[in-house]
Amino acid sequence: MRGELIIETRVDERDLISTPNFRDDLRRRIQVETGISSFRQQLLLEDKIIPEVCSWESLGRPQEIRVTFQQSTEDFSAELLRAAEMGDTKRVHDVLERFQNPDCKTTAGETAIMKASKRGDLDILELLLRAGADVNHTAENGSTPLLVAAEHGQLVVVRRLVGAGADSDLARADKEKAFISHDDTPLLLAVDCAPEGGRPEVIRCLLDAGADMERMNSRGMFPLLMAAHEGMYDIVCQLLEARANVNQSGSDGLTAVLAAVAEGHVDILKRLLHARANPRTRLNNGSTPWSIATSMSFDRRHREIEAVDNRHAEILQCLRDAG
């Protein structure tokens, strides 16, 4: 039985001889040419299935291979999900070899690629990508593989997902709602989690991928405001170097300058003012950096701590110098 010719390619004989696993190499070539997952391909030579481990020479140097595309007749989804969660690379490979759909999911909508992203398991991630797993799949809680990887600081996985076409601005939202701007994006999660161990490399990767620095989460916070509020000087500098809008305001008018003043972050205030932040910015209620810095509530909260008193005086001086 002969099928339709779907790919014809010339390969240097030296490459074929040097390839230790002829079957997998050929399947990858076919996937590149056709977009059909290598795990769905069954290679036949004279109507016999080509074994998993073989060389071109051991097969007699064939010039023509027949390919059939398969779908699983059994459901191995639970096995695949469990193997991905446990980090069992061999088991994941074996299940995918049975033509299992890589996008099978739990009752909460979590897929194997999301489990691998959370673990930072690049080997399993690569297998799932080869099988055609959806890098932008959204679970019931709105999570995506990239959101999960960014939240857990999995830099290598973040890089691979971005390279595989993951949307760096796809926001976490309820499935019943549209993806709206006031929700968590991978960049927001990376900044939000920075105090728990630092995510500067993840943030850099997302910025290089063109992540939107002006997207706000459900609290009206955006990356620069979040970093300024939490006192993350290095992250503030990183965002400013990437040309973040230094005067962007949240839903209540809160800007990075106002947050730095309110929280007493002198170094961040200086860096923002150096980047030409507006020192006269106002909250929706009319409060300004100067009024916040000179308020009685600010003084009462910190008066007992001499170091904070000095910081307070320095903030006032910064605002005076900025006009």
Characterization of the model:
With 323 residues, the protein is mainly α. The protein has a domain at 13-69: Phosphatidylinositol 3-kinase Catalytic Subunit, Chain A, domain 1 (Ubiquitin-like (UB roll)), CATH 3.10.20.90. Helix content is 46%, strand content 3%. It is built from 17 helices and three strands. It has helices at 13-18, 22-34, 77-86, 89-96, 112-119, 122-130, 145-151, 155-163, 186-192, 200-208, 223-229, 233-241, 256-263, 266-274, 289-293, 296-302, 306-321; strands spanning 41-45, 48-49, 66-69. The chain has a three-stranded antiparallel sheet, with no helix packed on it. A hairpin with a 2-residue loop joins β1 (41-45) and β2. α3 (77-86) packs parallel to α5, α9 (186-192) packs antiparallel against α10 (200-208) and α13 runs antiparallel to α14. The longest helix is centred in the last third of the chain and has 16 residues, at 306-321. The N and C termini lie far apart (84 Å).
List keywords for this structure.
single chain, Ubiquitin-like (UB roll), three-stranded antiparallel beta sheet, 3 strands, elongated
Concise overview:
Pfam families: Ank_2. By secondary structure, the protein is mainly alpha-helical.
